[in-house]
Amino acid sequence: MCGLVGSAVRSPPSAGLQRFAARFSSGPRSGPAAMQTAVVRCVPTETKLTISLRLGPGKGGQRHLQREQSESLRTALGRIAQHLLKAQVKPGKGRKAAQAAGALAQAPPVVLYQGEQPVPGDTSNAEAWQDGAVLQVGETRYRVERNPPTLTQLRLPGSILAGFPFCAKVELEFGEVSHSLFEWLREEGGGWEPVASGRVFTPGNGHIGLKLKLRCQPGDGRRLGPAVELESGGPVEAGPGACTFDGRQKFTRQAPEEPLLRVVSYNILADAYAQTEFSRSNLYPYCPPYALEVDYRQNLIKKELGGYNADIICLQEVDKNVFTNSLAPALDAFGFRGVFRIKEKQHEGLATFFRASKYRLISQHDMAFSEALASDPLHLELLEKISANPNVKEKVLQRSTAFQVCVLQSLKDSSKKLCVGNTHLYWHPKGGHIRLVQIAIAFRHLQRVTAEMYPDTPLIFCGDFNSTPNSGLYEFVTKGHISADHPDWTSNGEEERCNMSLTQSFKLKSACGEPDYTNYVGGFQGCLDYIFMDMNTFEVFQVIPFPSHEEVTSHLALPSVSHPSDHIALICDLKWK
């Protein structure tokens, strides 16, 4: 076990065990046949393997031998013998004395055993160095561990707040995070005291001012690899005080029971957008730079989402790394499973989570609108219509907008299925006509899923639609049709006119109504986000109240030190009819 101080430890898998083998405990182990350990990293896609073992005292005795996988075992064992001779030469002697000592030294026998039988010398290295083999070097015996679970990266966030859950970024080779062990310790009287286990940890007020340490032991479900310890870069800090979501969570303390279904839709503001100089200087100049940092905002987001006790959570603007290393493990600890869909050529996308005790994922039907329009015969008629205006066609096909569609099944009643759509439509204020094309593609795709693939499956459609309640898109979604002369068809001027009438067969309603705003920044306040529900299947039981205007504007606008995004989460309880 090795103690590593700092906020991050990284060793890329391509560097192999050579870079991190020093963290292995290669000394004698307890057990009926106590022996040292020889760690072998052998990956089929690489030409070489690495043998790591200790041939002498201290750090200088650690050896990392890279050998060709196709090379004979006999040659590799000969190299180990040579390294042992070098380890036996005492430091401080001149070059000639060292050469003389090496010449006089007698190489010990070096043999690799499988069971009681020596492995033939003409066996290739890739075949010879198997897990559980025993390497005999003179009087010393080494148990071979081939490709043990190994940490290649362990990182703690730069911001750790009391009362807010957080987790480490973990990357492994030959293991799974779900099979790994995590133990949290705090500073105590010059030492360390264990305080919790599990990947996600919520420090309390008693931890303020103290550093934390994470001890992680990677696993693969069959065995555990060497543990690594990592100290936090700084002490636990006090939280920001009251957050905009605190009052809302008074209404969500209890998870809903059947026939209720709690749904959340939330644009959480991608770090890729929050951290630009333009964002800091122009979009959110009122927000302190530290409150725009991803680690700080993730503290708030995880506490906010965990406190809503939802059944389904649809998120937009989710950074890929945030999903993998922050949201997915945290929400997993809260009882959720999640799936992610990235936008093409982007670093962010969509994430849908569902409560694992109530639902299971049957299938996914994700797509990119541009790709579907260009290649799926289902949208051929629509493609022909917009092809009449090449400017519109090009603009639609250039967009990276994604659509995430999940079909869930109730664990309590297998006959009860649910289709959940999640999207983030084109953002431009003058892009109403582009959004109409995108939503038309979405509805035809949803019709295929809910009528042809899973007949009579009800729909919940969430997202940031970048459309206000007086838009053509909102009219199309809630009324089922839009006329060819709607003003939104010329939202970017006559040169991009693409008049057409559209219809869709879903009977949908905005479950949270038409709030004054769901997006509140310095230059814009308006309702852009919705949870559209199937009126044939659901009715609204309750809408969780929004933060008060005073709370939203307590730091002028959003995001702020008490609110992690420029959007506000939509939360409602629906009731199955």
Automatic annotation (TrEMBL):
<protein>
    <recommendedName>
        <fullName>2',5'-phosphodiesterase 12</fullName>
    </recommendedName>
</protein>
<keyword id="KW-0378">Hydrolase</keyword>
<dbReference type="GO" id="GO:0046872">
    <property type="term" value="F:metal ion binding"/>
</dbReference>
<feature type="domain" description="2',5'-phosphodiesterase 12-like N-terminal">
    <location>
        <begin position="148"/>
        <end position="237"/>
    </location>
</feature>
<dbReference type="InterPro" id="IPR005135">
    <property type="entry name" value="Endo/exonuclease/phosphatase"/>
</dbReference>
<keyword id="KW-0496">Mitochondrion</keyword>
<dbReference type="GO" id="GO:0004535">
    <property type="term" value="F:poly(A)-specific ribonuclease activity"/>
</dbReference>
<keyword id="KW-0507">mRNA processing</keyword>
<keyword id="KW-0809">Transit peptide</keyword>
<dbReference type="Pfam" id="PF21171">
    <property type="entry name" value="PDE12-like_N"/>
</dbReference>
<keyword id="KW-0269">Exonuclease</keyword>
<keyword id="KW-0479">Metal-binding</keyword>
<dbReference type="InterPro" id="IPR050410">
    <property type="entry name" value="CCR4/nocturin_mRNA_transcr"/>
</dbReference>
<comment type="similarity">
    <text>Belongs to the CCR4/nocturin family.</text>
</comment>
<keyword id="KW-0597">Phosphoprotein</keyword>
<keyword id="KW-0460">Magnesium</keyword>
<dbReference type="GO" id="GO:0000288">
    <property type="term" value="P:nuclear-transcribed mRNA catabolic process, deadenylation-dependent decay"/>
</dbReference>
<dbReference type="GO" id="GO:0005759">
    <property type="term" value="C:mitochondrial matrix"/>
</dbReference>
<dbReference type="GO" id="GO:0006397">
    <property type="term" value="P:mRNA processing"/>
</dbReference>
<feature type="domain" description="Endonuclease/exonuclease/phosphatase">
    <location>
        <begin position="265"/>
        <end position="567"/>
    </location>
</feature>
<keyword id="KW-0540">Nuclease</keyword>
<dbReference type="InterPro" id="IPR048821">
    <property type="entry name" value="PDE12-like_N"/>
</dbReference>
<dbReference type="InterPro" id="IPR036691">
    <property type="entry name" value="Endo/exonu/phosph_ase_sf"/>
</dbReference>
<dbReference type="Pfam" id="PF03372">
    <property type="entry name" value="Exo_endo_phos"/>
</dbReference>
